[in-house]
Automatic annotation (TrEMBL):
Molecular function as annotated in GO: G protein-coupled receptor activity; photoreceptor activity
Subcellular compartments: Membrane
Key words of the record: Chromophore, Disulfide bond, G-protein coupled receptor, Glycoprotein, Membrane, Photoreceptor protein, Receptor, Retinal protein, Sensory transduction, Transducer, Transmembrane, Transmembrane helix, Vision
Disordered: region residues: 362-385
One cellular-component annotation, GO: membrane
Superkingdom of origin: Eukaryota
InterPro entries in UniProt: GPCR_opsins (IPR050125), GPCR_Rhodpsn (IPR000276), GPCR_Rhodpsn_7TM (IPR017452), Opsin (IPR001760), Retinal_BS (IPR027430)
Organism per entry: Phaedon cochleariae (Mustard beetle)
Domain G-protein coupled receptors family 1 profile: 77-340
BP terms from Gene Ontology: phototransduction; visual perception
Transmembrane domains' residue ranges: 59-85, 97-121, 127-153, 174-194, 222-243, 284-302, 322-343
Protein name from the UniProt record: G-protein coupled receptors family 1 profile domain-containing protein
Membrane topology, record value: Multi-pass membrane protein
One Pfam family linked to the record: 7tm_1
């Protein structure tokens, strides 16, 4: 019986890219990923994905609806950040240029969501090859741009906190750094698009596209290793270094305050110490860990996916597994505006003034500052939340 089933199994989809990928077993039709792709487009579909059965239509619809929800949430959150930070005079500071750029990166990543949703409702590669290229190029620009912008934010806060009197960011320096970010991201989006080095490909359920991490040629392995280093290792190293220095500075500052208070035979040098429910060290450590965790959660799945595809066991990369990193990146883009902006005191005040129906009830504390505070601990309490 088993031999008869094996004989009835149609293996042509593994050797003939132009074959329609269906099999008949137990009087039922098994459709493989790529079954509904036009013959001329099959050349763009990696053979690795075509060996897996196509997901149920309900799974495609579920992913499409999830992305619609994320798209709305991202446009609202990041749109408000761009609107408020760009139009409010009190928020037009050099340091906040980085927050605006991060919101812009998080926003443009969702400009490609209509392609994903269209593919999802079409159960695969419905939008075609050009749309796949556009999807992957926008993803490269926005993803690498967001990673390097996070590194710039970490550097800015590091300078403000560790060198409060000479570390203030100028608008010229901030603009130059933003121009560098986009220049830095450009090769990793343009070179694969033109197939000069590396290339883009559909991945997973063929509804999303990314750079090719499945081709095992030396040239492509070098590309994967390079983009892993420049888009993940370098910004991650900067972020971890700057925030670790910030936390170290805070602990050292707090220790010196406690030692001074002990010498003066007082409980604390802070007048409002009793009203604080947690120590400054704990607040800053939690904020720094949150920032690092968000970046790790966003890009580590993609880094692992790419390295596994290029250098590891590709059998671990099922279509469902390949869809997880794409989802985590979009999810983080929705959360970013709440971490970097909605926790911002002046932003909440401005938002309450312009949209009073939100009922934020934010006290108008004129003493609250963002990244311009000269005292290390007051800067930490506002820039790290």
């Amino acid at each position: 019986m088993a031999a008869e089933k094996m004989a009835a199994f149609n293996w042509s989809h593994l050797v003939n890219p132009a074959a329609r990928m269906t099999d008949r077993m137990d009087n039922s039709i098994i459709q493989y990923i790529g079954w509904n792709v036009e013959v001329e487009d099959l050349i763009h579909i990696p053979k690795h994905w075509r060996q897996y059965p196509a997901p149920d239509k309900s799974l495609h619809l579920l992913l499409g609806m999830i992305y619609i929800f994320l798209c709305v949430a991202a446009f609202v959150g990041n749109g408000l950040v761009l609107w408020i930070f760009s139009s409010a005079r009190s928020l037009r500071t050099a340091s906040n240029i980085f927050v605006v750029n991060l919101a812009f990166c998080d926003l443009i990543i969702f400009l490609m969501m209509p392609i994903f949703v269209y593919n999802s409702f079409g159960q695969g590669f419905s939008a075609g090859w050009l749309a796949c290229q556009v999807y992957a190029m926008i993803g490269s620009f926005s993803g690498i741009g967001a990673g390097m912008t996070n590194a710039c934010i970490a550097y800015d806060r590091y300078m403000i906190i560790t060198r409060p009197f000479e570390g203030k960011m100028s608008r010229t320096k901030a603009i130059i750094m933003i121009l560098f970010v986009w220049t830095y991201a450009t090769p990793w989006a343009v070179l694969p698009m033109l197939e000069i080095w590396g290339k883009f490909m559909p991945e997973g359920y063929l509804t999303a596209c990314s750079f090719d991490y499945l081709t095992t040629s030396y040239d492509n392995k070098l590309f994967v290793g390079s983009i892993f280093t420049f888009s993940y290792v370098i910004p991650m190293s900067f972020i971890l270094y700057f925030y670790s220095q910030i936390v170290s500075k805070v602990f050292s500052h707090e220790k010196s305050l406690r030692d001074q208070a002990k010498k003066m035979n007082v409980d604390s040098l802070r007048a409002n110490q009793q009203q604080k429910s947690e120590t400054a060290e704990l607040r800053i450590a939690k904020a720094a860990l949150t920032v690092c965790f968000m970046f790790v959660m966003s890009w580590t799945p993609y880094a692992v996916l790419a390295l596994t595809g290029a250098f590891g066991d590709q059998s671990l990369l099922t279509p469902g597994v390949a869809m997880v990193p794409a989802l985590t990146c979009k999810l983080v883009s929705c959360i970013d505006p709440y971490i970097y902006a909605i926790s911002h005191p002046k932003y909440r005040i401005e938002l309450q003034r312009r949209l009073p129906w939100l009922s934020l009830n934010e006290p108008n504390d004129t003493q609250s500052t963002v990244t311009e505070s000269s005292a290390p601990l007051s800067a930490l309490s506002t820039t790290m939340t």
